[in-house]
Write a structure and sequence with these properties.
271 residues; alpha/beta; Rossmann fold; eight-stranded mixed beta sheet; two-stranded parallel sheet; 9 helices; 10 strands
Amino acid sequence: MACRLARTANANVGEWVDDPAAFIHPREPLDRASPRPTAATMEAKTILITGASSGIGRDAARRFQSEGWNVVATMRTPENGAELGQLERTLVTRRDGTDPAAIASAVAVAIERFGRIDVLVNNAGYGAYGPLEAFSMDGIRRQFDTNVIGLLAVTKAVLPHMRVQGQGTVVNISSIGGKMTFPLGALYHGTKFAVEGISEALHYELEPLGIRVKIVEPGAIATDFAGRSFDFANDESLADYQPTVAKVMSGFEAMLGAASPVDVVSDVIWT
């Protein structure tokens, strides 16, 4: 599966595109003594990317940095971003989608360091799969806190700045799983369908303010999704579900075996 750029607000023709066939292919936050924006950084555009420790987020950070942008790469464990932290014009900082103080700090430090935020990429997330009966309520809340509440919280923190600027772009990384569903994916697909609705409503809400909202819907991408971003819950004593579990997991293996490279998504975000 390649990546579909869908319902893109203000695309080249200035309107939304919705073509199902259109497949195209945190060191801790700086302290208050951190460097003020320089002329060079002020001239460059700045992008803030959540979930940048690996996969799509990390590759997008590298791509934008290579194109001359300032990059704010946020992640729950900044130590995992040491490689990005060595790049010029790149700030690695902590962001926990469930911690309002950490979110506010990441946004404030980004503005202090680079003077502005032009683009927000809401990439942080993971996939919870398995029979609904096998998940605890804590597991259910964690999925929605990460994929939905975290996205809303970061967007809410960045919007006042973009509103004052009179411009900005929010790119929400949804999924083809926000357009279709697989069995066992009630939680993951529920969150991605939520991202779709949130994004569409925000498009109309923010367009008059000069702020654009875009959705990117990747299919199977060759990242460590299965290892780091996949939460599978099963209870083998729930025997009625086991035939479905076996079939779905077998299908996942085949799908991931034909995954597209991660730079496919970075190219779409850049475009």
